[in-house]
């Protein structure tokens, strides 16, 4: 391996820091989603965000995304969103990412032995916010499989 210039080292370090910031953004947001902390979750999204989810089509705007997801997940007493195999590519003030979703939710009191679950691919677009952090601009989510209790109304 050849030694790079100081500028190359700084650029590579910035990319690594950006990738870690994107990972932290997603984990912070989706842990808040599981707690139904809608304010923290939606703060991860840009004002002009777009959510693409097969059964729903496209939802445009941060508040519309929040309302759509909050309504769909309102009847779950508990849920876990697992984001797996995240990978990010950073190009200055824009980034893309991919990962897998594994969603598990209890649909009613006393029904935890066979929770609803589903999985599929995530595909994300991000941009750097004015303060230097990152915001989610577009999320595409596909559902490849479901298991357990029947798919609750609003999710498919």
Summarize the structure in short:
The chain has about 160 residues and is α+β, with helices and mostly antiparallel strands. It has three helices and seven strands, in the order ααββαβββββ.
Number of DSSP strand runs: 7
Terminal CA distance: 50 Å
The ordered H/E elements are HHEEHEEEEE
Number of distinct helices: 3
Low-confidence sequence ranges: none
Largest sheet: 7 strands, mixed
Percentage of residues assigned to helices: 25-40%
From the helix content, strand content and strand pairing, which structural class follows? alpha+beta
Shape: elongated
| Rounded Rg | 17 Å
Portion of residues in beta strands equals 35-45%
Rounded average pLDDT: 90
What does this structure look like?
The protein has 156 residues and is an alpha+beta fold. Helix content is 29%, strand content 41%. The protein contains three helices and seven strands; from the N terminus they run ααββαβββββ. Strands 1, 2, 3, 4, 5, 6 and 7 form a seven-stranded mixed sheet that branches. β5 and β6 form a beta hairpin. The mean pLDDT is 90.
Write the layout of secondary structure elements.
Blueprint: H1 6-34, H2 38-42, E1 45-53, E2 57-60, H3 62-73, E3 78-91, E4 94-106, E5 116-128, E6 134-141, E7 145-147
Parallel strand pairs: 1-6
Antiparallel strand pairs: 1-2, 3-4, 4-5, 5-6, 5-7
């Amino acid at each position: 391996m050849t030694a790079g210039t100081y500028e190359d080292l700084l650029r590579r370090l910035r990319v690594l820091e950006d990738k870690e910031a994107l990972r932290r953004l997603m984990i912070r947001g989706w842990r808040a989603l599981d707690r139904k902390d809608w304010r923290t979750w939606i703060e991860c999204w840009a004002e002009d965000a777009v959510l693409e989810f097969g059964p729903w089509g496209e939802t445009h705007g941060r508040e519309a995304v929040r309302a759509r997801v909050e309504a769909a997940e309102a009847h779950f007493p508990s849920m876990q969103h697992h984001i797996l195999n995240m990978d990010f590519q950073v190009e200055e003030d824009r980034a893309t990412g991919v990962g897998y979703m594994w969603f598990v939710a209890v649909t009613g009191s006393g029904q935890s032995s066979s929770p609803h679950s589903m999985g599929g691919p995530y595909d994300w677009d991000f941009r750097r916010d004015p303060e230097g952090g990152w915001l989610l601009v577009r999320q595409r989510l596909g559902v490849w499989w479901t298991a357990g209790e029947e798919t609750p109304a609003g999710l498919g």
